[in-house]
Write a structure and sequence with these properties.
Length: 251
């Protein structure tokens, strides 16, 4: 029987389990988004996927802050990413507008999901590689959470202007395939994780974050649409920018 002192060394404080709890909550959000998509509650489905993306941005950093990051947590996070950003958004878009396209719509769903799982697998391999540059300011390809938010851009547009916007199903299918390609591409995309703000500009940055947050809460669909278009513009600019990058990209 192990000694009490040995057992205490292997015990975890409840707060150290918080990152994994957030990951589980994100998985529940992704699964419930699929359910809402099947039921036709598309607004709630999109909202839950956005919540899952926010939780994904929090759990890893919280785990490192609390010193509770583990191999199990990393695997759990990767599986949650595939569900929340590879499966859920593609199915929600499919239920929203692609069911009547038969094979073409479903093929685009499969392409997007496979591209997402390939991207996540590449990230897992690269992150365990000895020569991987963990401090790179760039991802290789569009990250999975960004891809999930981008692939739902036609839904934001339709929700924001329901009486004026009619998007052809074939265009939605092609757009989904394009976003899937961006996931597995070698295009360097800006990583917010390594961005540093000077002390003089912190106040302006905080005001900007407050403004964006208020805009998303007040004009959710228009704000999400504009954020996606801005992100696409940054990706396109980096695609044609010939300036050497400060470090190699990462998945």
């Amino acid at each position: 029987m192990p000694k009490t002192s040995d057992r205490k060394k292997t015990d975890l404080a409840l707060i150290q389990l918080l990152p994994n709890i957030l990951t589980i909550v994100a998985i529940c959000a992704g699964l419930t988004a699929i359910r809402f998509g099947v039921q036709g509650s598309y607004v709630h489905a999109v909202q839950l996927i956005v919540v899952a993306a926010i939780l994904d941005g929090v759990d890893g950093r919280l785990a490192r802050l609390l010193g509770s990051d583990s191999k199990m947590g990393a695997e759990l996070d990767s599986l949650a990413d595939f569900l929340n950003f590879g499966v859920a958004p593609a199915l929600v878009v499919y239920y929203w507008t692609l069911q009547d396209t038969r094979s073409i719509g479903w093929l685009s769903v499969l392409v997007f999901a496979v591209c997402c799982v390939v991207r996540l697998a590449r990230f897992n391999v690269d992150s365990k590689s000895d020569d991987n540059d963990h401090d790179s300011a760039y991802f290789t390809g569009v990250p999975a959470p960004a891809g999930a938010l981008l692939v739902m851009l036609p839904m934001y547009l339709a929700f924001a202007f329901p009486d004026f916007v009619v998007i052809p199903d074939i265009l939605v299918s092609l757009y989904m395939v394009l976003i899937g390609y961006l996931l597995i591409s070698r295009i360097p995309t800006w990583s917010f994780k390594t961005t540093r703000i000077s002390r003089e500009n912190v106040k302006f940055f905080l005001v900007g974050v407050a403004f964006v947050g208020a805009a998303v809460l007040t004009f959710a669909w228009i704000s999400l649409m504009l954020l996606c278009l801005a992100y696409i513009a940054v990706v396109v600019w980096q695609l044609f920018d010939k300036t050497p990058y400060g470090g190699k990209g990462k998945s």
